[in-house]
Amino acid sequence: MRVRKLLAVMIGCVMAVALLGTAAQSADVREALSQASALEQIQKRGNLRVGFSTFKPWAMKNKKGEFIGFEIDVAKALAADMGVEPEFVPTKWSGIIPALLTGKFDIIIGGMGIRPQRNLKVNFSVPYDHSGMSIVAHKSVAPGYESLEDFNKPSVTIAARIGTTAAQAAKTHMPEATIRLFDDEAQALQELLTQRAHAMVASQPLPEQQAILHKERLYLPLDGETFTTEPIGFAIRKGDIDFLNFLNNWVRVKKAEGWLQERHAYWFTTMDWEDQIQ
């Protein structure tokens, strides 16, 4: 009987030691993961490096040469809640994901649609906004065009920005048309205004705003309606659970407070900011 009791005590001691070892290892793993997180590095460094590209009204320069826009407001608020300063790193859209992956910046805050192909390379937060593709056309070269079918012809030229979901949407919904791609939307818009393109596809609200600014030349064939809808999220390097958790909860809080909705309404449903830009 004594032998059995002694054996039981010994087994219990071994199990306790094993459990303590496992707990210690788990704590070490958690500590290592926390130290490896971009969130930890950002706080130690004191700045949040933000990758973005200019899209009106997501991000653009004002008359002083400073960046303003919906995404700029979002980035500044996010950095403030992290207790750090934002550092803006303007990047060509076509190379923005590779730049993130090579560590040029910590996060993409640039109106990036959450797409399965992109998600293979980066992790996305929950959506903090939603957008959609719209089309604006020239009255002289595309008179009376009212539907996507009217533009889906080899004789029609559609302008869009390279590497964007706008370019993909144009190819998907108007596969017969000639799609011309440009490095930025200003070039695509110029192509439309000079009548070298019948229409331009871009994220809402750019087409709507351009139709207002150039009402003598441009119009909205789909009555201002978008023909796609897509969620917009923060993009970060894969495998960073801590950073992703923080971003997801930040979005939930800002939505609950109504802050994201208020900023969206200012930048997307008004032109009150127009006199600030060049």
Can you walk through the features of this model?
- Helices cover 45% and strands 18% of the residues.
- A hairpin with a 5-residue loop joins strand 2 and strand 3.
- It has 278 residues and is α/β, with parallel strands linked by helices.
- The chain has eleven helices and 14 strands.
- The protein is globular and about 85 Å long.
- The chain has two domains: 39-130 and 230-276, 3-Layer(aba) Sandwich (D-Maltodextrin-Binding Protein, domain 2), CATH 3.40.190.10; 133-219, 3-Layer(aba) Sandwich (D-Maltodextrin-Binding Protein, domain 2).
- It has helices at 2-36, 38-45, 70-82, 96-101, 116-119, 148-151, 165-173, 185-193, 206-213, 241-257, 259-269; strands at 47-52, 60-61, 67-68, 85-90, 107-108, 123-124, 129-131, 133-138, 157-161, 178-182, 199-203, 218-219, 230-232, 235-236.
- A five-stranded mixed sheet has the order 10-9-11-8-12. Strands 4-1-5 form a three-stranded parallel sheet. A two-stranded antiparallel ribbon has the order 2-3.
- It comes from Desulfohalobium retbaense (strain ATCC 49708 / DSM 5692 / JCM 16813 / HR100).
- Belongs to the bacterial solute-binding protein 3 family.
- Pfam families: SBP_bac_3 (PF00497).
- Keywords: Signal.
- It is found in: Cell envelope.
CATH homologous superfamily heading of the largest domain: Periplasmic binding protein-like II
Q: How many strands, which pairing sense, and closed or not: the largest β-sheet? A: 5 strands, mixed
Strand content: 15-25%
Radius of gyration, in angstroms, nearest whole number: 25 Å
Which secondary-structure class do the elements indicate?
alpha/beta
* N-C termini distance: 91 Å
Q: Strands of the largest sheet, in order across it?
A: 10-9-11-8-12
Into which percent range does the helicity of residues fall? 40-55%
Give the number of DSSP strands. 14
The number of helical segments is 11
Backbone shape: globular
Task: Write down the secondary-structure element order.
Answer: HHEEEHEHEHEEEHEHEHEHEEEHH
What ranges have pLDDT less than 50 throughout 5 or more consecutive residues? Answer: 22-34
* Gross CATH architecture of the largest domain: 3-Layer(aba) Sandwich
CATH class of the largest domain: Alpha Beta
Q: What would the CATH topology of the largest domain be?
A: D-Maltodextrin-Binding Protein, domain 2
Tally of separate domains? 2
Summarize model confidence as the mean pLDDT. Answer: 89
Family: Belongs to the bacterial solute-binding protein 3 family.
Main location: other
Signal peptide: 1-26
GO molecular function: ligand-gated monoatomic ion channel activity
